[in-house]
Amino acid sequence: MCQQEVGVQQLPVEWSEVKAWVFDLDGTLLDSRPDILAAASLTLVDYDHPPLPQNYQLPNLHGMAGELVRDVFVERGYAAPVDLVRLRAEFEAHYAAQNPSQARLYDGVPEWLEWARSQGIALGICTNKLERLARDGMQQLDIAAGFGAITGSDTYGVGKPSPEPLLRTLEVLGVAPAEAVFFGDTHADAACAQAAGVRFAWHSTGYGDARAQALPQALRYARYAELMKQVQAVQVERML
Fold this sequence. Notes:
- By secondary structure, the chain is an alpha/beta fold.
- The protein has 2 domains: 15-31 and 105-239, HAD superfamily/HAD-like (Rossmann fold); 33-97.
- It contains 9 helices and 8 strands.
- It has helices at 33-46, 65-75, 84-97, 109-118, 131-140, 164-173, 187-196, 210-213, 224-239, and strands spanning 20-23, 30-31, 104-105, 122-126, 147-151, 180-184, 199-203, 219-221.
- The strands form 2 sheets. It has a 6-stranded parallel beta sheet with strand order 5-4-1-6-7-8, sandwiched between helices.
- Strand 7 (199-203), helix 8 (210-213) and strand 8 (219-221) form a beta-alpha-beta unit.
């Protein structure tokens, strides 16, 4: 498998055989770190703790919301709330209330998605955030059009790294695992793809770390513009 950034001569994915692209959301299509930080900070205040510093590095950006906030409590040296359901609900209420959102798309995402649509590729989302929050965020950033399936951690009652949400997303799209590529940024995404038998494309400038790098990947990329140029170049070569 290729262990280099996009920019090498060949991509190890036969793109002509790919019928669906499924994406993680946070850290893959959009950078929502400021919104997550603000919501986590307000949740701490709910429990009578000081707010987080602006430059705080969140210790967990791969799990579901309750785990994410619990790990912030632990890292700050506070007793972690026992009721993760309540903790998650409080965090998600703060997250949803942010208006305007500070989230932004990574450079090149709109063009990458529009090119996929022009090629007739089915598009899906498989994220560990709630489905309604995923849909709201996609609407605000104007990328919701053309997605045939949007799966959150609550859609089927299970989140990544379980392969089930990804497999169920592909079922909705009517595409087999061997015909899909899953784009993600963390080891939870990579492990989900591996267990589902789906090729994994690692967004190396997202929220992941060495744990994602160590798992199987068909390719890794840092910027969508370079990825699109490379895929288009491969298509042109086939036509010559």
